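Lab manual, section 2.4: Encoding a predicted structure.

Procedure: take the sequence of the chain (286 residues), apply the prediction step described in section 2.3, and record the output as structure tokens. A sample record is shown.
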Amino acid sequence: MFSDAGWSRDLGPSTEISDKRVLFEESGHDYAVFVKELGALRSRADGARSREEAFDGHMATGRVLFDYHLYKEALVILKRACELQPTDALEAAETGGNRWAYLLPQIHVNLGISLEGEGMVLSACEHYREAAILCPTHFRALKLLGSALFGVGEYKAAVKALEEAIYMKNDYADAHCDLASALHAMGDDDNAIKEFQKAIDLEPGHVDALYNLGGLYMDMGRYQRASEMYTRVLAVWPNHWKAQLNKAVSLLGAGKTDEAKKALKEDLKTTNRVELHDAVAHLKQL
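Recorded output:
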């Protein structure tokens, strides 16, 4: 029912309400007509002249679907409205009584993402926290809360939120990666390495985990291991100039000056950033 990985099944309407829903034979003609007409309504709403009109169109469609107990279809429509105007969606849900209550957690998440995108990280934290309170099994809200708390320097609280998210979804690579960063910030490098490695084991091409683990190894003076991590980043993202630069620096730290120069030359082929020219000038002095 919930396609978003961060949604919990606890967010649906009660069983008592669900039993009253209209039932379609999904292979039947009526359902095919319904899906076609619903798609046309969604397209019409998305094609509105403004975000406000699009929001109103999706909300109106969602309300009708909800009234007919078509909760799965209503949820898809209403989630789109939440993406368009999260603040208006929150107001509509809060004034809509119990029938909208199960949408509130995702609305708070969407509003948090919107605020974080505008740099209002502390306000975003409050909405992620509210989503987690309303739906304690919403592991994505907890992950986003932990990541945002890390961003404002609340490392201990970030670790707690991220550990809770991982407890509910142990294969959440992004959460392992952010937990590792928070642990590193607190000086717990051994456990940070373990968490980065868990993220990489889950997603071998996880660029953030590979890159940040390289940075951790650099901080520890383990330059050869750092260069290996940056090499893996470049295998996934060949034009990642920061990884190429840090690979050169780590090779230099490992005493491999010729390889460091070669790495920098490769980097200069993809970008002309001033940081690279500074690094080249430094190498020429060696």
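Check your result against the sample. The CA atoms of residues 49 and 116 lie 26 Å apart.
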